[in-house]
Amino acid sequence: MIRTLLVDDDALTLELHRSYLERIEGFEVAGECTGARAALSAVLERPGPGAFDLVLLDVTMPDGTGIDVLRTLRARAAAVDVIAITGVRDAETVRQMAALGVFQYLVKPFPFAVFSERLAAYRAYREQAQSTEGEATQAEIDSLLGRVTEPIPLPKGLSADSLERVVAALRAAGALSASETAERLGMSRVSVRRYLEHLVADGVLRREARYGTRGRPETEYRWGRAPENRS
To answer: Who's near 57: CB < 8 A, 6+ residues apart?
Structure first.
């Protein structure tokens, strides 16, 4: 398991990232921090078998920046990988984080599909690194130095902002129909249904029939992939 430390000064963001990470195979939430100093202490005071493998690091915090944290970790030769997760977009910050060896730089907000894709890429990187022994080939070197920076495209007609709103509505409610989601977000039912079906195809949501007292059953959408039919 990839032991992961979550660092963010916002409690709701920590909760969201925890719920995201718990849904991805091969990762475990091994710690949480709400500030820069606490993050440094958590990493530097846990060497050896109990050490963290990965830090999901916020950039802006009340008692320091992600740049400060990463710079200190590198100066202390801490063998931990870092993925920046932040709302900060300015090029200079990105350049500094990249120069300090951040594995990826993920800008908030983002849907689970993007988070999952980036974490899966990191997991593949670790597996490649652990399986490479002796002298590496050029292809292996290229793979070990690879970074995922290209945005993950959405189907034509879907926007990342609207997708995030739909995701947030389903997270808050647990289960909604297309009509209920549309009413909450002030969007058309047809448009909302496209986003919901995209999330079903992505394995984020599952469809279930909701049986009322009258009329035809209504389709509702719930978190999680539908269970496999094993016979």
So the answer is: 7, 39, 66, 69, 70, 82, 83, 84, 85, 86, 102
pLDDT digits (tens, 9 = 90+) for 172-217: 888 899 999 999 999 999 999 999 998 888 767 888 888 765 667 7
Element (H, E) at 206: strand 205-210
Separation CA 57–CA 66 (nearest Å): 6
Which of 124, 126, 179, 190 minimizes the C-alpha distance to 157?
Answer: 190
Residue 4 identity: T
Is the model's pLDDT at 228 over the cut of 80? no
Local structure of residue 76 (DSSP, 8 states): T
Q: Walk me through the domains of the chain, giving residue ranges and CATH numbers.
A: 2-144 (3.40.50.2300), 160-223 (1.10.10.10)
Alpha carbons within 13 angstroms on the beta-carbon side of residue 214 total 0
